């Protein structure tokens, strides 16, 4: 007989084991599970729904809502997220996953949520959305549970073995410097302005990535800052998420400054710095394929490695 309940202390080992048996393209370690889930300020054991048979874990669906604002006082009171789910292969299509999803969604509904997303959860998303190519059954499951596709971000990689900072980029840097722009590695004096720039111009998760990255030991030279005079107009960072040095981003240029090649400069200078650290690649999990950033990445030699679907269900 299947027993359904929420997370209890001691369940972690079985959760990580079953995760790695099922999410083959996104394995996790006990340390990462601890850092991304158990130590998340928004973690609530009641949202982690588990299924057992004879004390063996056979399924998990995790629901989370915001308890700590990402920025300011905004708790996004109408939104909830399903960052991950999985069911033992021997119990798929038996109703176990559907029951767990029902309990997870009920948890969010009881906490007055009106919209549920898979997954697009910050700060600790494991993946942006569902990878249909890797997990076709899971994608069909989400659709059967009433989730619809919102958009499809892509992950990209760039091998750095053959990377070279071109004369074209060097000349572009020179031109912009003559116009009063600077491109430098961050110092302490830059941190507040860059974090505020990331928060206000782009996404509070980007500001958080910089702040928490530095607190966790991110070297300052892995943050590049573009200024026009004294004004911050762009930045890029690598190694900011989970202290993985070849993970690129976040990266952004003031929309009012676009069209001047500032993003191209920051990206190339960042890749040059990464190669100088003997990193053999650069990768990230999320961009829009048809966005200006997506086109820039392709021109710079990045290739698409995965496509995700961000899904939504209205309650």
Automatic annotation (TrEMBL):
- List, alphabetically, the SUPFAM superfamilies matched: Acyl-CoA N-acyltransferases (Nat)
What's the superkingdom here?
A: Bacteria
The molecular function terms in GO held by this entry are:
acyltransferase activity, transferring groups other than amino-acyl groups
Which residue ranges does the record assign to the N-acetyltransferase domain?
Answer: 2-161, 181-315
Q: Could you list the residue ranges that cross the membrane?
A: none
Q: Which Gene3D superfamilies does the UniProt record give?
A: 3.40.630.30
Q: Transferase as a keyword? A: yes
What InterPro entries does the annotation carry? Acyl_CoA_acyltransferase, GNAT_dom, MshD_Acetyltransferase
- One matching Pfam family, short form? Acetyltransf_7
Keywords tagged on the record? Transferase
Which PANTHER family does the UniProt entry name for this protein?
L-AMINO ACID N-ACETYLTRANSFERASE, N-ACETYLTRANSFERASE DOMAIN-CONTAINING PROTEIN
The name under which this protein is listed is: GNAT family N-acetyltransferase
Q: Which organism is it from?
A: Bacillus timonensis
């Amino acid at each position: 007989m299947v027993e359904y309940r929420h997370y209890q202390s001691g369940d972690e080992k079985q959760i990580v084991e079953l995760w790695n048996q099922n999410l083959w393209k996104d394995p996790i370690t006990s340390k990462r599970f601890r850092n991304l889930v158990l130590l998340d300020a928004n973690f609530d054991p009641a949202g982690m729904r588990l299924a057992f048979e004879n004390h063996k874990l056979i399924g998990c669906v995790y629901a989370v809502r915001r308890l700590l604002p990402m920025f300011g006082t905004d708790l996004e009171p109408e939104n909830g997220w399903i960052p991950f789910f999985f069911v033992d292969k021997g119990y798929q299509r038996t109703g176990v996953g559907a029951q767990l999803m029902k309990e997870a969604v009920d948890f969010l509904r009881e906490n007055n949520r009106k919209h549920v997303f898979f997954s697009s959860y910050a700060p600790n998303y494991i993946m942006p959305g569902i990878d249909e190519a890797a997990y076709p059954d899971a994608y069909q499951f989400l659709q059967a549970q009433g989730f619809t596709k919102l958009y499809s971000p892509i992950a990209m990689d760039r091998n750095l073995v053959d990377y070279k900072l071109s004369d074209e980029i060097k000349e572009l840097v020179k031109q912009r410097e003559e116009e009063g722009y600077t491109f430098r590695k961050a110092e302490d004096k830059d941190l507040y302005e860059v974090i505020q720039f990331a928060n206000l111009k782009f996404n509070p998760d980007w500001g958080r990535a910089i702040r928490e990255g530095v607190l966790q030991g991110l070297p300052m030279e892995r943050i590049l800052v573009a200024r026009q005079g004294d004004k911050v107009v762009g930045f890029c960072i690598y190694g900011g998420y989970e202290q993985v040095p070849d993970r690129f981003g976040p990266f952004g240029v003031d929309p009012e400054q676009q069209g001047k090649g500032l993003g191209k400069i920051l990206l190339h200078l960042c890749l040059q710095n990464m190669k100088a650290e003997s990193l053999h690649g650069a990768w990230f999990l999320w961009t829009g394929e048809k966005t200006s950033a997506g086109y820039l990445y392709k021109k710079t030699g990045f290739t698409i490695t995965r496509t995700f679907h961000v899904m939504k269900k209205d309650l």
